[in-house]
Amino acid sequence: MATEEHHPVTWFRSTLWAALLGSVTALTCPGIFGALNGMGAGGGASPDITNAANAIVFGTLAARSPFTESLINRITPKWALCIGTLGYVPYAAGLYCNDRFGTNWLLLFGAVCIGVSACFLWVASGAILLGYSEEHRKGRASLQSLGASIGGIVSLALNIEKSWRGSVSTPTYIALMIIMCLGFPFAALLPTAKRIQRTDGRPVQLAQQASFLKEFRVLKNMLKRPAILALMPLWLYGQWFLSYQWQFNFAYFTVRARALNSTLFYLVGLFSALLMGQILDFERFSRRMRARIGFFLVLFFVGASWILGQVVQVHHSKTTPTLDWSSDGFGLGAFLFILWGFSDPFVTTFMFWLGGTLTRNLNETSFLAAVINFVGSLGSTFGFVVSAMDVEYDWACVINVILFFVSVPFTAWVVFAKVTDSSHGKSLAGLEGDKSSSASVFETPAVLPVVSIVPGEKGNVK
Q1: 120-179 per-position pLDDT tens digit
Q2: Cα 153 from Cα 150, distance rounded (Å)
Q3: What is the torsion angle, in degrees rounded to the nearest 10, for the CA atoms of residue 19, residue 287, residue 225 and residue 366?
Q4: CA torsion, points 233, 41, 186, 8, in degrees to nearest 10?
Q5: Fold (topology level) of 11-195+209-437
Q6: How far is CA 189 from CA 75, 114, 160, 179, in A?
């Protein structure tokens, strides 16, 4: 068997260096965003304005998701990644000012900024990891969840004595904002596509750009497909749960316990996303078999987490505890929160992978990712609106239970009736061979995942 020729590369222009910069940027910005919100109420003492701000964040994401890919096609991934880092610090500063001084305007302004910038960051980082890299390096784990865990560790270390309810300390906000500020210089170090050197000798080529009208036609035709419509309940659920889970951590735990829970939540999530990715990549099984294994794993772990969650929520609604790690009853509540952290990435990894099995047409893949992100962001928006309306926790939990189990039969239909062992030549919108309608930054599938999962036949985790 012929071996691929290896070409020498300069380290600071290598695909590995580019992927590292993209991943570290994800660590410093969305990773720390996750750390702040994973503690509930953005680390503060009151969730009211934070829920409204997060509704704005994800609402802005939803509004921009279908159109960001086309813009990034025109400004290149490097500058899109730089733009993507700019909204996080104003948001974190707004959380701090709101908690300490009662100032609302900066938090709401920061929410809009992060909603706009996050769209650029996710499409750009996905394009870098998929479009720059050689085939054997695509689709590996990013550092976003690790960044959230690091943020949780920082929060825990700076609030280790806070065995009561309240907000995190001022140094916590300052330390996390400093980490967020590092995102822009890391992004600015990224080589441009023309300067990237690949070990296989192939250049990174930008695809020919289509008109907005043609790209809109791709999106319109895609949304007519029954399989796409059938997966929308799962995509809607796929980010709705964030608001309730973060609220649960805020409502029933002390400051230091919230920081510990958040750290473990993202650590186990990193492991479970990698695990699901490896299962969906296990090519000794047919793709149909992998789809069914993934479906039953999601059904078991996510279903069990919400059944247990409903039981625990009913109990906590009656007793309204404030749990510290030295308290009786802490173990069950913490286990539930960590179980959510483990099972949530099962859903997000599987839903992107499953969507990717429906087409191998490169003109459609980036739009499919954008649609998934759009529907998921709508779910997050509605979830935070529910939290901002002070809906009782019992009912907020019930909504999540209903959303998940309603999505199960529709997802099962796609898994058992629509997934085939090969999608070569399949097109959701009838665009085989239409190179003029390419929507990808590179001649490879692009992604737009807030959840940091790469769509496509492979189930790897970005």
Answers
A1: 887 777 667 656 655 445 444 456 677 888 888 999 999 999 888 888 989 999 999 999
A2: 5
A3: 10
A4: -40
A5: Growth Hormone; Chain: A; (1.20.1250)
A6: 16, 21, 36, 16
